[in-house]
């Protein structure tokens, strides 16, 4: 229940629907009871059990309400039969029963009508909050998580919470009220018989609770398994070429099949345990009904303390308790399953974001002087990737970082954009620590072109204008021209309004990379970060992209993480890195003349 209290905050905007649902449920419970009680006058007329009363009874206070209602009913039946005949009187009673059952069902529909807005509203808002949180969380969080598990939490776990919402509202309002109103009516008809009901409810509750104890734990396992097989699907779709190329279909089929088998077994156990609740509660109800039939029959036939119509109606009321009792047992299972789902959802929603704006963060919309990396240490896990690393990048200069794979080049790009935070030292832009800057304004100063061209299943224009959503067609075309991409985009079926497919797969590697460059050009930031932007390209594509990069870097401060010599030989400063430290720095000519590490890298033509 603790998790549901936290989820309930999402219901606040829809509280009017909750109030209307509660009101309708109150009326539903009331009319459900009255519709059963209304059988008494009909049965009284049918079996001619009425007591003839020809003088209207006098109301003598709340203590005599039961006898007053019985006398008034008998008076009405007596006078109506005398004046209109028994057939007419029976018709009136039937009309009353139909009216009460109609009202009961109208309020039942209205209760469900209003709860729909609450349930779907909470579903929408929880999903939106989770998506927003997923986008805000640092990249480090997702390096430890399966994507499929996150997808499962946003989709199926949130859906489970939505179903549980309906269950919990029935649990606290509708079904208990139905039971309470029914028991009040039963007490009014026969206090002796009603004592049996009070024996039944706690015993039933204890047995049902015992059945459901392990449900939350099993639901947790099932939801984790669902996250796993969704991850397998996501990885399979992303790596189909490799799977087919290495004939690994059978391995992945087995991996997915093993996961779905585990999910199958868990689901069977959960559902079978859940399905046990309804027959258990119904069987216990029938046992009590049997006892009531025996004892009630004794009261009617032997003691003569209860008449036939009242006893039949009483039995109907007793059976009327079974339906809400079953619903409560089912709802309690729903709450246990939902609690497991809510725990998984809240694990993301309540995850602390270490890379967030501080209070009164500096908003910086221009770059004036330089970037300073001062004595920084950084590690992803145990071992430092950068050790006492310092670098000065003046405004308008191009600084290139080179070195073997694992030397820490890409880590610098991650730290400059504050995808990660340093553990020691600081990075400052114009002497302002980037941790003191508003994240939005920090990243607004930077353009990023990565080795992997990350494009989305949308049009060319939508992909290029990500950093400037209000860009005109002309601005997009101008950016494409700078990026040497306009020629091939112009030939697409609908030009810049052509959809480029999932991850831009309708385009070649070089075309995708040039769109990534055009995106950075259109944003027009003062600082450009190029993370091995040409390493995955063929020679012809590289020439076009290199020309595009040169166009883009004019009059800008650029940090180039280099894989190939051609990208960096014109840089103002080349920094050679090894195991997180700077081993050499200077211009291309100075480093070649120095005959050191850089010269060896050039000779091998391997800028990893």
From TrEMBL:
Chief location bin: membrane
Keyword RNA-binding: no
Gene Ontology molecular functions: ABC-type oligopeptide transporter activity; ATP binding; ATP hydrolysis activity
Keyword terms of this UniProt record: ATP-binding, Membrane, Nucleotide-binding, Transmembrane, Transmembrane helix, Transport
Location in the cell: Cell membrane
Domain ABC transporter positions: 371-604
Organism annotation: Sinomicrobium weinanense
GO cellular component, one term: plasma membrane
Name recorded for this polypeptide: ABC transporter ATP-binding protein
Alphabetical list of SMART domains matching this protein: AAA
Membrane spanning residue stretches: 20-47, 92-118, 171-189, 195-212, 283-302
């Amino acid at each position: 229940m603790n998790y549901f209290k936290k989820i309930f905050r999402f219901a606040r905007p829809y509280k009017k629907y909750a109030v209307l649902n509660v009101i309708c449920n109150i009326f539903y419970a009331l009319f459900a009871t009255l519709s059963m009680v209304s059988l008494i006058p009909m049965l009284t007329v049918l079996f001619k059990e009425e007591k003839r009363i020809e003088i209207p009874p006098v109301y003598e206070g709340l203590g005599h309400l039961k006898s007053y209602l019985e006398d008034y009913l008998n008076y009405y039946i007596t006078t109506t039969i005398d004046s209109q005949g028994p057939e007419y009187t029976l018709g009136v009673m039937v009309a009353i029963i139909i009216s009460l059952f109609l009202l009961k069902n109208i309020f039942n529909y209205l209760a469900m009508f209003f709860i729909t807005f609450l349930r779907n509203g909470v579903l929408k808002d929880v999903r939106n909050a989770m998506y927003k949180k997923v986008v805000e969380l640092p990249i480090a969080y997702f390096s430890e998580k399966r994507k499929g598990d996150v997808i499962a939490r946003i989709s199926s776990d949130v859906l489970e919470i939505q179903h549980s919402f309906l269950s919990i509202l029935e649990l606290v309002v509708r079904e208990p009220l139905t039971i309470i109103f029914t028991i009040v009516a039963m007490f009014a008809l026969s206090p002796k018989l009603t004592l049996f009901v009070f024996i039944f409810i706690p015993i039933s509750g204890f047995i049902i609770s015992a059945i459901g104890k392990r449900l939350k734990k099993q639901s947790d396992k099932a939801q984790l398994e669902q996250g796993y097989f969704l991850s397998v699907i996501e990885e399979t779709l992303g790596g189909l070429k490799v799977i087919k190329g290495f004939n690994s279909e059978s391995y992945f089929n087995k991996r997915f099949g093993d996961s779905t088998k585990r999910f199958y077994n868990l689901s069977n156990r959960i559902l079978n345990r859940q399905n046990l609740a309804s027959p258990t509660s119904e069987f216990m109800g029938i046992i009590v009904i049997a006892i009531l039939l025996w004892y009630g029959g004794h009261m009617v036939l032997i003691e003569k303390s209860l008449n036939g119509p009242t006893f039949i109606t009483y039995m109907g009321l007793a059976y009327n308790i079974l339906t809400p009792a079953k619903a409560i047992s089912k709802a309690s299972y729903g709450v246990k399953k939902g609690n497991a789902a809510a725990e998984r959802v809240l694990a993301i929603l309540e995850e602390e974001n270490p890379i967030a704006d501080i209070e009164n963060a500096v908003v910086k919309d221009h770059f004036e002087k330089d970037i300073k990396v001062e004595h920084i240490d950084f590690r992803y896990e145990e071992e430092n990737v950068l050790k006492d690393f310092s670098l000065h990048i003046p405004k308008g200069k191009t600084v290139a970082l080179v070195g073997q794979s694992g030397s820490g080049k890409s880590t610098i790009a991650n730290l400059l954009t504050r995808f990660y935070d340093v553990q020691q030292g600081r990075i400052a832009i114009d002497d302002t620590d980037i941790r003191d800057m508003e994240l939005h304004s920090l990243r607004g100063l930077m353009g990023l072109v990565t080795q992997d061209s990350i494009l989305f299943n949308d049009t060319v224009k939508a992909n290029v204008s990500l950093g400037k959503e209000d860009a005109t067609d002309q601005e997009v075309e101008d950016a494409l021209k700078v990026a040497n991409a306009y020629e091939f985009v112009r030939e697409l079926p609908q030009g810049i309004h052509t959809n480029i497919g999932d991850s831009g797969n309708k385009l070649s590697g070089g075309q995708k990379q040039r769109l990534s460059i055009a995106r950075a050009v259109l944003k027009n930031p003062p600082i450009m970060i190029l993370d091995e932007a040409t390493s995955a390209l063929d020679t012809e594509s590289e020439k076009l992209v290199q020309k595009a990069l040169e166009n883009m870097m004019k009059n800008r401060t650029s940090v180039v993480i280099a894989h190939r010599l051609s990208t960096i030989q014109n840089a103002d400063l080349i920094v050679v890195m090894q195991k997180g430290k700077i081993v050499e720095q200077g211009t291309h000519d100075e480093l070649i003349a120095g005959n050191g590490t850089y010269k060896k890298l050039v000779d091998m033509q391997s800028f990893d």
